[in-house]
Amino acid sequence: MKKVKQNISTWGLLIFVFLLATLSINAQPKEEEHTEKVTINGYVFDAIIVDGDTIIMADLDNISISSPRKFKNREDYRRYRKYRYYGSKVFPYAQKAIKIFRDIEASTETMSKRRRKRFVRRKYRQLKREFKKPMKNLTKTQGKILIKMIEKELDTPFYDLMKDMKGGFTASYWNQMGKLFSYDLKQGYHEGDDPILDVVLSDFDISYKKGE
What pTM does this model have? Predict the structure, then answer.
């Protein structure tokens, strides 16, 4: 496993991301989805309509994102297209969260506890300004993909992040809340649990190195 520095204040930023995602899960209605035919330049395509957004289902020969994609059936391909569309929506937030995490990790390494607390507080306000409004509009599936992106990059379940920040009682409370919406904070990201999600996450690189 990757080694992730046990900086309690830093965890708080990522926990804030999770809490906002949890709020969006509570606030958003169930995703409305149906299929229909659409015509583009005289050609007829199948399309998935999800909460008013149209995702075109087209057969593209010899085109891939990072490597050729093969699916067992059309349903898997359909889910891939939907997940990837959602991934493109939450990717900027995951990328920004990781960047802030890495910056804080490097910047606070030699700071005193008091200075680190002030520094993290400023970053927290920055994260809140940037993320609060757009994240409240996320659907349940979009929030899940965002969390999995971050868990994959840090190789750490959100339960562990929460426990380091707020203690075992709070972590257990939020884990139970997450289960109400079919999300287990202790599970983390494990390649193979959802092959379609694995493919989608491999299409997005949220890693960050200083200077990027």
Answer: 0.68
